[in-house]
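Recap from last week: sequence in, structure out.
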Amino acid sequence: MVLTFTDSGIYCPAADAHIDPWRPVPRALVTHGHADHARPGMGAYLATEAAAPVLRHRLGDIALDTVSYGQTITMGGAQISYHPAGHVPGSAQIRVEVDGEVWVVSGDYKTVADGLSTPFEPVACHAFVTESTFGLPIYTWPDQAALAAEINGWWAATAAEGRTCVLGCYSLGKAQRVMAMLDPSIGPILTHGAIEGTNAVLRAQGLPLPDTVQVTPATAIADYPGAMVIAPPSALNSTWMRRFGAVSTGIASGWMRLRGVRRRRAADRGFVISDHADWDGLNDAVKATGAERIFVTHGYRQQFAHWLTEQGYDAGIVTTDYGGESLDEPTEETAP
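Predicted structure tokens:
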């Protein structure tokens, strides 16, 4: 087999390297900078040039080499290349070829362009390793322009009432995508420290983000009437919120497709947006690869693998330590 599935991560014997390993290994091929895919403690890392600044921001002084999209390198007996995944800036699918057989590990991906990430590109292969975070037909995403109008409408109405909007978003990817949708004429945009740190890294790479103000202990919300505050979801239930006075809270997540989830989170508004593929996106991506063998990882694994089997694919389930999309981020994401 080109790849095997071990208790440390997805392993390529020919290259003697792991893809997105969750335990320390000598050599890690990393798809993107989210904490469940890019972990500390590896001997060496390989990622795209566009992912490297975020990896260094999150993991510190690591031994990191980079490749550009589409560049092929030889690693032992394998040919390795990285291809756009459309998930977050710098995210990649990893193509591995050994003796003419091609496998692709998609990492996390979405097939609809978001205006910030390099758009997803299908890669022809014999075997495809796919996530299934939202691998049920109920999960379909709205048009991005309609979503932007919905978020801005909420913000304008809340500002007119003299309250502050606080919107929970992942600090890498989703926060920047939401900020790019905002209409700055409504009011100022404030950010949690975890998000502003990521903003600074991405701005330095040339990503077009609106002006933002980082919230600090000295921030007086009275100085920012009608503000939109962008914060990690877990901050919405913390003492950090007290400084904003009267607020309307929202959560941006694919899980907001389920009304019960929003009720359990006690948010005023839920906005359906995800940096993962929806049901149609997953099916389109699998079909576009031309692969006959499909390995389904985190999310609705059993359901999506069963569906693919019914469609004629040789589909199986793979156990990994990836988290997909949750309503909270790891602890390091939520520091003020």
